[in-house]
Structures are given as C-alpha cells and as structure tokens.
UniProtKB/TrEMBL annotation:
The lineage of its organism: Bacteria, Bacillati, Actinomycetota, Actinomycetes, Mycobacteriales. This is Long-chain fatty acid--CoA ligase. Keywords: Ligase. The keyword Transferase does not apply. The keyword Ligase applies. It comes from Mycobacterium simiae (Mycobacterium habana).
C-alpha cells in the first residue's frame, strides 16, 4: 500500500464527518460517513483485484459517493487513476465513448468504472482489453479473504494538463507527490477537522477539483460535493450550498466569481459568514471581477480577507503558491506605455515547493523585472507520459511570466500568448478584460491575438462570443474601449456565437486553435 493510500485509510476510518454529494435528479444531498465511504472503497478494490489487477483505472461520470470511493479503492490495489470528462452537450455519445476509451487505452487503463448513461455508452463500444463496469456493482463486491497486499504502481494519478496554449499532455504524479501537495495546501490554509468544511462543484478531472476532494478526505473534513452541471444550471446554487453547509473553504475560476458579482442583485437569503478561504486559480486572476464579487457578497457576511488568489498547475499536482488565510485580494501595479495595470499577488510557495523567476530581456515591457516562472519541489510530477522523466531537484519552466512582489508571486500571463505590436508587448488578458465589458459579450468568451504582417488580419485581433442585438455598435464600442484603456487599436473584431470558441476540458480557451480557426497563423 502506498503512503497516500495508507494516509487516506487512517483519515477516512477515524473521521467523524460525512461526505455529501448532490444528486441532480432528486435535488437532494446523498450522505455517507467517511468510514462507510472507505468500506465502499474496499469493495471496489476487491472487484479490481478480481479483474486482472489493472495498473491504471479510468473513472468517468458525475460525482457520486461510489465515484469518490473508487479513487481510494483504486489506490488500495496499488493502481493509479485517470479521470476523464463526460460528453459535452450535443455530442454524439457513441463517438464520445469511443474517443474516451481510446484515450484511456493510450494511458494504459484496462478497467473503467462509470455509472448512468455514461456507463451504457461506454459499454456499448468497449474494445477488447478494457473492462467497463458499474460503480455501484463494483462497490458491493466483497472479498472472502480480505484485501491482499498489493504492489504499488509507479503513479497514483495520470492527470491531464490544460493544453490551452498547445497540445495537452498527461502528468504522471506519484503517491508521495500527491500526498505532499495536499499537506502543503492544508498547512498553508490551516485546515482543521474541528472546524473546517469544504464545498466544491469543480470537475474532478481537473487538478483543483480533485484537490477539493483529496484534501478534506485526508483530514476527515466534511465535504459537500456537487457538479459543474448543477452549478451551470443555476450559478446561485453555489451560494445556497455554501450557506447550507456553513462552508469555510471553496474554490472556483474567474467566470464563477464574475457571474455572481455581476448579478448580485438577484441574491438573497444566504449566509456566507463562515467562509474564510475562497480560492481563485487556474488562470490569471481577474482582480476587478474578484473584487466585485467580494463587495457584492459583503452584505451576506463574506469577509474581504476570505479571497485567496492562488497559483498552481497539474505538473505540480495542483498548488504551488498560496496566500496566508485572511490576506484577501492584494494587488501589484505594473506600469507600461498604456498606463497602470493591476495583477493579483498570489502568496508564497507552499511547504516543499520553491519558485524562482528567470529574468529575460524579451519581456522587458514594464517597470517590473518580468521573467519566466520556474518551480521545483516535492509535489512535482515524475514527467509527462511518453516523455523523458524529470528530476524534482531541477527547475521546471512553467511557460508562465511573472515577478515577485512583497506579498509573493505575481503571474502576468503565458509567454506564448504575449502580443507584440509596434514595439510593444501586451498581455492578452489586459485587452480581454476590457473587451468583456461591452454589452452582449459573453463573460469568459474573449480572446485577444496578435498577428504578423503576413497574416490575413495583421495586428491585434479580438475574437468574442456575442449574444447581443447590434454587432456594429458593439464592435465600435469595443474598439473605442480598447483604444482608450489599452492604448492600441484592434485591426479587427470578430464576433462568434456563444460556445463556439474552442476550450479545454476545464474551460480554458485554446488560443492556438482560435488562431487556426480564424486563419490567423502567419
């Protein structure tokens, strides 16, 4: 048994708290004490050991009690997990199932556990060499002789990376790396079983979503777990869940905080007074949107100090830099030719991790010494699947640009995404946040791109998902706003229908695909 599986067993069996999972069909919470969840994990482990002892197990589906149990059940057998997303709306289910099983096969997965309609789709196209089973059936398996001592696989998690600026890869995470990352996060935020409650709706195939399950499981904390679909059906549900659970810790991306901040007038009858850590990570933090959320929720008891802008990536399991609890949203101001810009201060490296910024003259665009962020430490992956292994003692280049402020790390953007026009270097987020203020432009649906002289549209091009009535007026307003605030005039503004911009499985925009779709590649 790995040190991670052993730690999970100790915590789950001694916990007095419950795991509560939201059931969309009944609109109710299904609850099980953590010791019972571990009992289900043992049943799933017994099923896996009776079926060729796979070294990697695939999980697909909305969160259920059995789904969470399957994570620990897999680790009890010594195998690793890979979690992939379900089908998006409008997808051909047979094609989705075939593609998903092909991806699992490429990862070395030989057993897939699922439930509901996902299960039937997967079973209907399962190839030889991959067994697909119902999570509920697997969880009821009992071994007459108990679980034998299982050999531990090299990797506890096969975690997909975002692929927002290139091809997605699979990070191979050892049990030790996962355990140390969870402990580093818990230590920084001071998580305590005597008072903390976690509430999350983030997807489990994303590193932050999985962390929001593993961290409380390793401490025996109460966990209220819903799904992205339940959040999307009504984002205000999230506030109701936080209020009902008296949650002290939650997490979400910019989009979620922006929606609730923008439509706060529709909020009523919630109490956010218990919330002390509201994590925002996964992309450069929208300071204005995050701050607007805090102001809008203050009448409902939210303390400004609860805001926790963070930095992390799948290659380091999840967390890299976190602020101290209670620090709130702090800004670092960067001044360039177009004026001052505010970026969130993300705190210091968690225990076991180290961060440095390697200065580069190519990024000398402001009054700050900006360079590429490099990381190393105990939470690092062993390497990408199919690539050479990495050494945790060596510095790993993240591709992100930033600098250090008195309060910690500041991330400005991705090196690959810098827009260079007329001798100026601009981060696309500066333009995208301004463009998103135009009426009719969908929140989180804007991409700013820079193109060369040989491109079909040379200069700055803004692609935006639009659902308004007057494109001409909106286009004019967007150009004027960007020119006034950012000091640059877009060569073109391209409006697209909502949902048409390509995204990663975790919702990040795929900028390179946007360039290709608009035939902007030089």
């Amino acid at each position: 048994m790995s040190e991670l599986a052993a730690a999970m067993t100790r915590s789950m069996l001694t916990a007095t708290a419950d795991l509560a999972v939201f059931d969309r069909e009944t609109a109710d919470w299904q609850r099980r004490p953590w010791p019972e969840v571990h009992g289900l994990a043992e049943g799933i482990a017994a099923w896996l050991l009776d079926h060729d002892r796979p070294t990697a197990v695939g999980l697909v589906g909305e969160p259920t009690i059995e789904f969470i149990a399957a994570i620990q059940g897999t680790w009890l057998t010594g195998a690793g997990i890979s979690i992939l997303p379900g089908p998006v709306r409008g997808a051909d289910l047979r094609q989705w199932a075939s593609s998903t099983l092909a991806r699992f096969g490429g990862l070395g997965v030989t057993a897939v556990l699922s439930h509901g309609s996902h299960l039937e789709s997967l079973k209907s196209v399962a190839p030889l060499g991959i067994t697909v089973e119902d999570l509920g059936i697997a969880a009821t398996t009992r071994s007459a002789s108990g679980l034998p001592q299982a050999e531990t696989a090299n990797h506890a998690i096969l975690q997909g990376t975002a692929g927002s600026t290139g091809s997605p890869k699979t990070a191979m995470l050892s049990a030790g790396a996962v355990l140390r990352n969870m402990r580093g996060l818990s230590q920084r935020f001071g998580l305590d079983a005597s008072g903390d409650v976690v509430c999350s709706w983030l997807p489990l195939f994303h590193d932050m979503g999985l962390t929001c399950v593993l961290a409380p499981a390793l401490l025996g904390l109460p966990l209220w777990l819903s799904s992205p679909a339940a959040f999307s059906a009504s984002p205000f549900n999230w506030l109701k869940w936080l209020s009902a659970s008296r949650a002290t810790v939650t997490a979400a991306p910019n989009l979620a905080y922006n929606i609730l901040g923008k439509y706060a007038s529709l909020v009523s009858d919630v109490d956010l007074g218990a919330l002390r850590v509201a994590i925002n990570g996964g992309e450069p933090v929208d300071c204005k949107g995050f701050g607007r959320f805090a102001e809008a929720m203050a009448p409902f008891g939210l303390a400004a100090g609860a805001l926790a802008p963070c930095y992390g990536l799948a290659e380091s399991t999840c967390a890299v830099a976190l602020p101290a609890p209670g620090a709130g949203l702090r800004f670092a101001t960067v001044v360039d030719d177009s004026g001052p810009h505010e970026y969130a201060v993300l705190g210091d490296a968690i225990p076991g991790m180290a961060i440095r910024v390697v200065a580069d003259d190519r990024y000398a665009m402001t009054d700050r010494e900006i360079g590429e962020i490099e990381i190393r430490g105990t939470s690092m992956m062993d390497g990408y699947l199919g690539h050479a292994p990495i050494d945790r003692e060596n510095w790993f280049p993240t591709g992100d640009l930033g600098f250090f402020d008195d309060g910690g790390l500041v991330v400005c953007g991705r090196a690959k995404e810098i827009i260079s026009i007329a001798g100026r270097n601009i981060f696309p987020t500066e333009i995208e946040l301004v463009a998103a203020q135009v009426d009719g432009v969908r929140q989180g649906g804007v991409v700013a791109l820079g193109t060369g002289a040989r491109s079909a549209r040379p200069g700055l091009v803004v692609a935006a998902e639009f659902r308004g009535d007057n494109e001409t007026e909106a286009r004019t307003e967007m150009i004027q706003r960007i020119a006034s605030v950012c000091g640059i005039v877009p060569a073109d503004v391209v409006f697209m229908s909502p949902g048409s911009l390509p995204r990663t499985s975790s919702g990040k925009l795929r900028r390179l695909e946007v360039r290709r779709s608009l035939e902007l590649v030089d």
